[in-house]
């Protein structure tokens, strides 16, 4: 048998099946590849909508995180105000406990402070390496001084913090 002809035939068959599925997924039911209620294509449409929602959520989170780090670096927010907002973002993340595993600290509040320091230093470091090093030392010292004075990190209530972004509605951040 001629191998190129066989490959061309298989390619044509596969292409036809893909095109048929794109035009009318109901053919899958007729050959027994999905449930009669068509649940498989519906599941894919639902999953696609979930992924689009997650992408939009992630985009908003990145915008907020960038505003947060800029305001901390400029001195508009204290480390602890920024950490309170970061904890809010973490709590409304698809992976709310991830920072607890990654960052060191005696408490979750200390860990979120270290997360914010890392975010801010990384953001500033892309533009100004020297300023990032100074900022890192200043923020680490602020955290050390706070721990010495209070024995543990105490984050302010969000109601008393300046919002790092124009408007936050909790529904905007829920995945």
> What value does the average pLDDT take?
78
Oligomer: single chain
Share in helix: over 70%
Main sheet summary: none
The poorly predicted ranges are: 166-175
Secondary structure tally, helices: 8
From the spread of the alpha carbons, the general shape counts as elongated
Which properties best describe this structure?
175 residues, mainly alpha, 8 helices, disordered C terminus
Question: What would you note in describing this structure?
Answer:
The protein has one domain. By secondary structure, the protein is mainly α. Helix 4 crosses helix 6 and helix 6 runs antiparallel to helix 7. The longest helix is centred in the first third of the chain and has 36 residues. Helix content is 70%, strand content 0%. The protein is built from eight helices and no strands.
Concise description?
By secondary structure, the protein is mainly α.
Give me the secondary-structure topology.
Elements: H1 3-23, H2 27-30, H3 39-74, H4 79-91, H5 98-102, H6 108-125, H7 129-150, H8 170-173
Helix pairs in contact: 3-4, 3-6, 4-6, 6-7
């Amino acid at each position: 048998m001629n191998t190129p002809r066989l490959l061309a035939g298989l390619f044509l068959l596969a292409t036809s099946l893909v095109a048929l599925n794109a035009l009318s997924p109901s053919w899958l039911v007729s050959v027994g590849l999905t449930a009669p209620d068509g649940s498989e294509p519906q599941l894919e449409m639902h999953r696609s909508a979930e992924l689009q929602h997650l992408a939009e959520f992630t985009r908003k989170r990145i915008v907020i995180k960038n505003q947060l780090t800029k305001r901390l670096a400029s001195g508009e927010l204290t480390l602890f105000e920024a950490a309170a907002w970061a904890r809010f973002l973490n709590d409304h993340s698809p992976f709310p406990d991830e920072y607890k595993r990654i960052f060191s600290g005696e408490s979750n509040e200390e860990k979120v402070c270290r997360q914010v320091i890392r975010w801010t230093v990384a953001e500033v470091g892309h533009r100004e390496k020297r300023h990032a090093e100074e900022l890192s030392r200043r923020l680490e010292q602020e955290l050390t001084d706070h721990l010495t004075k209070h024995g543990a990190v105490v984050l302010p209530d969000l109601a008393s913090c300046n919002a790092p972004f124009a408007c936050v509605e909790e529904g905007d951040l829920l995945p």
